[in-house]
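Notes on consecutive records. When two proteins share a document, each keeps its own sequence and its own token line. Never mix them. Below: protein one.
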Amino acid sequence: MMTLLSVPLGIVGHGLLLKPRRRAYAVSVPVEMPDYWTVDQLHALPDDGQRYEIIDGELHVTPAPSFPHQLVIGELVYVLKPWCDAQGYCLLFAPAAVTWSPRTEVQPDILVMPKVNGRPPGRFEDVGRLLLAIEVLAPSTKRWDRFTKRREYQRRGVPEYWIVDIEARCVERWPATAESPEVIRDIVSFRADEASAGLDVRMQDVFRAALGDAPAED
């Protein structure tokens, strides 16, 4: 399949994408897009402000997020960080690559993972597992987040996956073995294991702090 990409000069040759030594000028050129992607091919794509993810070689491209999307992420990070610090967990937000195989790499909006010997990991492969993944829905990601990514998170044994729906002002909570989500409009609770303290997130407070009283648009 052939498509047009706006890429810096010097990174395309013989249908292959190569990492540039420098980025000076951008041009639109025809690039051969593989039917099934690898993580190495994904990493060779230009940094154009979009999010590129693959699951079992299937590429998904997400445009730059809206302000409401980012405001909700920021408020959730603000709420989650004290709990993560107290429990000794590492809290990250996109862009942060979760690489599970040579053909699967995703970027949750927010992710919580264990530390390594009390220190933040240098890369996901140092830990290899997530405790919690959170995605904030956008119009272009609804099917990807609710179906493709949700199934992948469950397949990988992520204990909980939250889908934050700004428009509906709720959270779809997916435990690892659930066949349908619990739709929560008020308090979302989470506990990584029996030894850790629980977390309670008042979602209406999050939406109010991030978006005010105006109707949300994402």
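Protein two starts on the next line and is unrelated to protein one.
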Amino acid sequence: MKAHLARYERLIGSSEAKNDIIEIRGIRIDKTARRVWVNDEEKQFTTKEFDLLTFLAENPNHVFTKEELFREIWDMESVGDIATVTVHIKKIREKIEMNTNKPQYIETIVGGWVQI
């Protein structure tokens, strides 16, 4: 039986495989499964919201302009309005912040946003 289990794990990968997870003060982002929990409650994110949140979480304390975020998340080939970045940040805040008027995670500063 053990031989069959070992062979099965070799074929599909070990059941011990770890997902790539980012944790920031009550937020857990599972990059592998593309899932997000805020204070142990799973929240639903669109693809771009997830990509934007993950990008900011991977680059803490760095200020990004709307143009930089648009280029990074939507890529240079995208045709669109950079105002979409503002809309996505607002939607992300509604899902992760306790009080959107006093954000703890994504702070707006002159010239862009910073993940703190």
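For the record: DSSP finds four helices and seven strands in the chain.
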